[in-house]
Amino acid sequence: MILTNSQYDAIMRTYEQKQLHNHRQLEQRYAEVYQKLPELKELNDTISSLSIGQARRLLEGDDTALAELKNQIKELSEEAEAMLVAGGFPVDYLELQCECADCKDTGYIGNQKCHCFQRIIIDMLYEQSNLKHILQKENFDTFSFSYYSPNYIDPETGYSSLDTIQNAYEESRKFVDTFGNEFRNLFFYGDPGVGKTFLSNCVAKELIDKSYSVVYLSSFQLFDTLTKGKFDKDEQSEKINKHLLNCDLLIIDDLGTELVNSLTVSQLFLCLNERLLHRKSTIISTNLSLDSIVDIYSERIFSRITSNYTMLKLTGDDIRIKKKLMNMEEM
Ligand SMILES: [Zn+2]
Predict the structure, then answer these.
(1) pLDDT higher than threshold 80 for residue 204
(2) What percentage of the chain carries pLDDT values higher than 90?
(3) Of residues 252 and 193, which shows the higher confidence score?
(4) Where does 157-234 have alpha helices with state H?
């Protein structure tokens, strides 16, 4: 994910605040300790002036005096530590305490962003995706084949419900594994309630955890946003529209549930086409049949989809109903 300048600045500001907070806390701890142990302050002052002397010797290149001074500082520091503990304080009480010990709350280790920085980016991606809560429940770890019957055969293809979901599952895994290297798009279609949305959520979670930006929109939300962007030329809707076209993965769920008219059809074409041109992946799921796609959205859109997307048909009994029944049996 590429951060915008303002996102980056906002993150760096929180790091600066953390550092400031850490230093203030340390100052308070020093004040507390010195009030109780004034003799420790004297000792620490001596250590400080010796350290300044050490730096001077270092510059002068006086090695013998330097070694002597080093020893002296070491001994006094040990004495100071013992004094602190004897005074009832933890041994590290006068050390700077940071939330992240690895980067000392600077966000960077050398020139590289620290893992805590990456974590902030991933959290932002979850926020932006519209999927924050659902992805805890719907992901590859919670996916189950047990809802799919080997006996429910699609008369059109001859494949069972279990066959089709196994194939779609494999393709989704492959999609995640090759993401960033191979440009691919997925199109889930078929009976309602057979796990199309669930599978796209599995993909979304894996990619967000790899720091890719994912945006999930129901078809209704997508067209609402695209149309708003067309009429309100304000900064906010332009920003949203740009994000729709530029995010690493766009998921359009339940295509066909929006109110279709000539405007939505042309907006859909533009959106899909733009993403294809920039090699940005898209996942579409729909309950519509392929025939209906042609009828509703035109041959032009249909051929864009069939020539650029992996077409995955899912069939079966309604899984939402089945899950509910199973839950009731458990009760
Ligand atoms: Zn860190």
Answers:
(1) yes
(2) 54
(3) 252
(4) 161-177, 196-209, 219-231
CB 251 within 8 A of CB 204: yes
Cβ contact 253:216 at 8 Å? yes
CA 8 to centroid of ligand 1, rounded, Å:
15
283 DSSP β-pair partners = 186, 251
The helix, strand and coil proportions of the chain, stated in percent and rounded to the nearest 5, come to 60, 10, 25
Question: Near ion ligand 1, which residues have CB within 5 Å?
Answer: 100, 102-103, 114, 116
Q: Calculate how far, in angstroms, residue 136's C-alpha sits from the geometric centre of ligand 1.
A: 25
Distance (Å) from CA 110 to ligand 1 centroid: 11
Computed from CA positions of residues 309, 315, 321, 324, in that sequence, does the dihedral angle turn out positive or negative?
Answer: negative
Average pLDDT, the chain: 88
The amino acid present at 112, given as its one-letter code, is Q
Lowest mean pLDDT among 50-59, 231-240, 271-280, 301-310: 231-240
